[in-house]
Amino acid sequence: MNTLQGVKIMLVDDEPHILQFLELGLQQEGCEIMLAEDGFTALTLAEPFQPHLIILDIMMPGMDGMEVCRQLRDSACNAAIIMLTARDEVDDRVRGLLTGADDYMAKPFSFEELLARITARIRNQFPGLLEEAMIGPFRVDDRKRQITYHGNVLALSPTEYDLLKLLISRHGSVLSKSSILNRVWDYDFGGQDNIVEVYIRSLREKLGDKEHTVIRTLRGAGYRLDLP
């Protein structure tokens, strides 16, 4: 399962390295991506692509993001729009929101924060799209905050649910303890990273993973969930 499986996102920015960075990260989340390096291209592609969400840079040559946003709304585009800018100016934020944007982020930004904002917008504007996903022997149901494994519902605490969902969404990839702490707990968490070990041990018990073949430990690197 990818956390944004099935979500269609259009990226509009005149900086190729930002497009590449966002495209790679969002594809790993399961998104279908369409790229546009200028406003005219974005307007041309939006109707046939029908994105759920548009990440739109304000400062672009030719047609800026404000005008693109205005024309998208005039064309009855119902995609959520998150605007990006290199300036964190109150006037820009207000103008963008009044033009029809749903959210606003200033560069540089954290990918994790952008991901959280995307998820929030999708849940708000397209309820049901992210509620349930299946991968291998797992089924994740966000409505019930419930994970099923080989047909059996796992008795998980809220934190265990968040941790296992993260591991499933990143299956095949190694997650460091610090990365897990940042995503499952928060950046201000003051505890020791051995709390991750405690929760991993608990999840293994509930999965019957005595041989650690489902949740693997990679010494010095972190943990990886493997699927058959």
Précis, in short:
Helix content is 41%, strand content 21%. The protein has 228 residues and is an alpha/beta fold. The strands form 3 sheets. The protein has a 5-stranded parallel beta sheet, sandwiched between helices.
What does this structure look like?
It is a single chain. The chain is about 40% helix and about 20% strand. The strands form three sheets. The protein has a five-stranded parallel beta sheet with strand order 2-1-3-4-5, sandwiched between helices. The protein has a four-stranded antiparallel beta sheet with strand order 6-7-8-9, covered by helices on one side. The protein is α/β, with parallel strands linked by helices. It folds into two domains: about 10-125, Rossmann fold; about 130-225, Arc Repressor Mutant, subunit A. The protein is built from eight helices and eleven strands. The model has no long low-confidence stretch (mean pLDDT about 90). The radius of gyration is 20 Å and the shape is elongated. The protein has helices at about 15-30, 40-50, 65-75, 90-100, 110-125, 160-170, 175-185, 195-205; strands at about 10, 30-35, 55, 80-85, 105, 130-135, 140, 145-150, 150-155, 215-220, 220-225. Helix 2 runs parallel beside helix 3 and helix 6 (about 160-170) crosses helix 8 (about 195-205). One of its GO terms (biological process) is regulation of DNA-templated transcription. This is Response regulator transcription factor. Pfam families: Response_reg (PF00072), Trans_reg_C (PF00486). Keywords: DNA-binding, Phosphoprotein, Transcription, Transcription regulation, Two-component regulatory system. GO terms for molecular function: phosphorelay response regulator activity; transcription cis-regulatory region binding.
